Amino acid sequence: MQLLNTRLQQVEWRRDRVLELSSQGFSQSDIATVLQVDKSIISRDMAHLRHEAQENLQNHIHETIPEEYHKAMTGINQVLRMCWSIVSKTEDEKTKLQALSLINDCNKYKIDLSTNGVVITDAIKYVNGKMDHLNNQEKKLLQDIKDKGEDPEAEAEAEDTGEINFSPGLEEQQTHNGIF
Question: Which of 10, 23, 76 is nearest to 49 (CA)?
Answer without folding.
Answer: 23
